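Quick note —
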Amino acid sequence: MTTIIYKHALETVSNLNADLGTKTEGEPSATAGTYALINDMISNLSSIKASMKTEEKVISARLTALAVAGEVVTEAAVVNSPMTAATLMCKTGPGNETTARHDGSTTDVATLPAVFKVGSVYYSESAVFGVLAGACKLISELKDGTLTIANPPVISSTTLNTT
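Predicted structure written out below.
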């Protein structure tokens, strides 16, 4: 039979249900609640997805307009476009240029459309995918119970770059 200390069980319930509190550089304090943290992460992901859907509509509308006009040249620049050029793309890690995220010959991030914009930082789809893929792996390992002393949590290395 296990012996759980009463105060530890009480602290656990309190920690699960505490509010999020203040985050420093995006990281919650040690007193933040676990459920509040999960809710904050879901909210952030939902916001990112909504922003990306907005950019996707801009990209798709321009592609459709070009196709209707018969102006499709796959290697040509899309001029007079409402699309925003990315400022960051995934250089190494999940979503890098050797994957199917783009054709592997992209050396100029400005040739990729931005799918997520924050201030003057414009992320390509490969940049967003690379960041989220590393987080996904870690969360999956937690959910599957494969994070152990022998398999400690490691975030996949993703490098974002401008070239």
